[in-house]
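Q: what sequence does this backbone want?
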């Protein structure tokens, strides 16, 4: 089954996990020193996946909010990313949060290191 087909049938948290996995897989080459290409400049399918994944992120969940802000930043939507990051309350999630905020302030869409323990939970 093609990725686009199984994405349509997944629901809720399962769809979020699958879309997150697809996002991370799409970034794999860039973590291995390939020249960075922002999500905003990639294929329509990549951009559509990012948009759909953001709709599955609950703003009252700190990890979802972080993911939403990271997607916005990789899409070069820096002001929106900062708006999400500045919503109260935002519990401290370690130094990665400040790195994300700083990158958005600098209008830098390049990949940041993945937070420890954040390996994809889903293998299709």
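A:
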């Amino acid at each position: 089954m093609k990725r686009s087909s199984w994405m349509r049938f997944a629901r809720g948290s399962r769809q979020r996990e699958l879309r997150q996995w697809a996002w991370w897989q799409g970034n794999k080459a860039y973590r291995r020193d390939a020249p960075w290409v922002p999500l905003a400049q990639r294929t329509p399918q990549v951009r559509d996946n990012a948009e759909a994944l953001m709709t599955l992120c609950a703003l009252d969940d700190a990890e979802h909010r972080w993911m939403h802000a990271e997607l916005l930043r990789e899409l070069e939507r820096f002001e929106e990313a900062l708006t999400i990051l500045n919503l109260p309350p935002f519990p401290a999630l370690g130094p990665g949060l400040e790195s994300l905020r700083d990158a958005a302030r600098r209008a830098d869409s390049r990949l940041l290191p993945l937070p420890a323990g954040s390996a994809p939970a889903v293998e299709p």
